[in-house]
């Protein structure tokens, strides 16, 4: 019974948290007023702003002597600086290198992903308007807006992180924000091997295929590591080759010296000015590329990239959302059809089979581990089906990789090996 009295009840803890949030909100208003009054509401670096905020907080507590100041002054100043020059409660999460994704489901539900594992954290916004204020601060530098008439937005932060926001009336429980953080230091092939994401033999094969200008499709679900693997494979491109990349949000970090980076543009608030991946792909073909890297195949641009692969742009690569190599081929067929290509199923299959050399399937396991589960050679069309040959396969029972079949004579010759 004595122990129970030592710990505050959940209700008391909630009241303390609410009181703390209310204090921060009042301090935030007070500091903004003082900054405006003192003529300091101009662009200042965090370090320049810090002594002013510290003085204002001390001044506020002196004026409100009845308040029991139990707050850690430095921590409080840091949080207020996050509100004024940063992204509020999210700033520490954005600065944490261990966090890959940040997911906000309204002001009271915040989740993060670390090492593939999603967990809820004890962090809160004051209310819906607080979340909305942070979202608007994120998108303001790129001229985007979000309101009832435009309740969804995709954007990229200055550090390369991707964000997606949805607000009421579309999101029922308040503004929702998803942040996919950009890793400045991309993972290397050695890291993937050490982490058990692929075997040494798989890496050697993929490296040879990338150098030999195989057309490679990387398939997998959201967050499975498709872009990470695409980045790694792009490092094996010869420095003398001209590479054009096309992405919705620039994430690729190519070390090739001759790279042209193109990024799509969403429509403005009037629905004008959109530039799609297909628009950029058509233009890229006029730019004398040796290889084209399409960040993600998701629509009509698939037809153009397959045609490019079939007409001299060997070594092109892309990613695709699919749960297996066979599903990836079905999705390609569907997207070619939706692109308005009117032809027989047989011809569509033939275009795909002659364009793609390898499909690499990546997956995120239930424990958060990311692995390459299949490497599949795409061969030809027979009996109205695209024939494939599995080269490597992940065994979940042994947590190991095994060679399934040997590579065909055709691809061995392409690698410069004996048939």
UniProtKB/TrEMBL annotation:
<dbReference type="Pfam" id="PF00437">
    <property type="entry name" value="T2SSE"/>
</dbReference>
<protein>
    <submittedName>
        <fullName>ATPase</fullName>
    </submittedName>
</protein>
<dbReference type="InterPro" id="IPR001482">
    <property type="entry name" value="T2SS/T4SS_dom"/>
</dbReference>
<dbReference type="InterPro" id="IPR027417">
    <property type="entry name" value="P-loop_NTPase"/>
</dbReference>
<dbReference type="GO" id="GO:0016887">
    <property type="term" value="F:ATP hydrolysis activity"/>
</dbReference>
<dbReference type="InterPro" id="IPR050921">
    <property type="entry name" value="T4SS_GSP_E_ATPase"/>
</dbReference>
<dbReference type="InterPro" id="IPR003593">
    <property type="entry name" value="AAA+_ATPase"/>
</dbReference>
<feature type="domain" description="AAA+ ATPase">
    <location>
        <begin position="212"/>
        <end position="340"/>
    </location>
</feature>
<comment type="similarity">
    <text>Belongs to the GSP E family.</text>
</comment>
């Amino acid at each position: 019974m004595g122990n129970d009295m030592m710990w505050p009840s959940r209700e008391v803890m909630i009241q303390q948290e609410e009181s703390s949030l209310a204090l921060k909100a009042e301090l935030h208003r007070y500091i903004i007023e003082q900054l405006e009054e003192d003529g300091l509401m101009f662009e200042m670096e965090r370090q320049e702003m810090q002594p002013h905020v510290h003085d204002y907080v001390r001044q506020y507590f002196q004026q409100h002597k009845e308040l029991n100041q139990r707050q850690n002054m430095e921590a409080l100043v840091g949080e207020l600086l996050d509100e004024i020059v940063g992204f509020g409660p999210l700033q520490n999460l954005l600065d944490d290198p261990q966090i890959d994704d940040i997911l906000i489901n309204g002001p009271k539900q915040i989740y993060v992903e670390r090492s593939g594992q999603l967990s809820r954290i004890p962090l809160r916004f004051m209310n819906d308007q607080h979340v909305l204020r942070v979202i608007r601060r994120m998108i303001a530098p790129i001229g985007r807006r979000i309101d009832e008439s435009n309740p969804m937005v995709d954007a990229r932060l200055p550090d390369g992180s991707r964000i997606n926001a949805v607000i009421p009336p579309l999101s029922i429980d308040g503004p929702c924000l998803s942040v996919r953080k950009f890793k400045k230091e991309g993972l290397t092939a050695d890291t993937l091997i050490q982490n058990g994401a692929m075997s040494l033999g798989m890496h050697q094969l993929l490296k040879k295929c990338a150098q030999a200008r195989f057309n490679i499709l990387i398939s997998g679900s959201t967050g499975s590591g498709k872009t990470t693997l695409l980045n790694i494979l792009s490092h094996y491109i010869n420095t003398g080759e001209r590479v054009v990349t096309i992405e919705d949000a620039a994430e690729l970090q190519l070390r090739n010296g001759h790279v042209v980076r193109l990024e799509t543009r969403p429509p403005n608030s009037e629905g004008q000015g959109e530039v799609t991946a297909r628009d950029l792909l058509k233009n890229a073909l006029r730019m004398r590329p040796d290889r084209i890297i399409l960040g993600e195949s998701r629509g009509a641009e698939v037809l153009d990239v397959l045609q490019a692969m079939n007409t001299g742009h060997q070594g092109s690569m892309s990613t695709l959302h699919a749960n297996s190599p066979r599903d990836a081929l079905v999705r390609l067929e569907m997207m070619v059809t939706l692109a308005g290509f009117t032809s027989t199923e047989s011809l569509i299959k033939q275009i795909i089979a002659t364009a793609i050399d390898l499909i690499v399937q990546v997956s995120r396991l239930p424990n958060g581990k990311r692995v390459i589960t299949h490497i599949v050679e795409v061969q030809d069309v027979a009996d109205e089906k695209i024939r494939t040959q599995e080269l490597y396969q992940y065994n979940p029972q042994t947590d190991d990789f095994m060679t399934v079949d040997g590579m065909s004579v055709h691809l061995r010759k392409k690698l410069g090996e004996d048939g």
